[in-house]
Amino acid sequence: MHESLAIVDEMYLEGLAMKRAQIRRDRPDISDDSVEQSIQDWITNRPMDAPGRVRLT
């Protein structure tokens, strides 16, 4: 079970990295802080597929 959770965690972090890359492609002129704020906004404002806490890192 522990290994399964590690895989899910890795996939989550890879998904965030992909979203960061998308934001940078769409808006190459914004700062790193703005990218992180955009990530946080995307996570907190998108429809959730399951209840629970949202992790931003």
UniProtKB/TrEMBL annotation:
Q: Which InterPro entries match?
A: Rv0078B
An example of a Pfam family matching this protein is Rv0078B
| Designated name of the protein | Unannotated protein
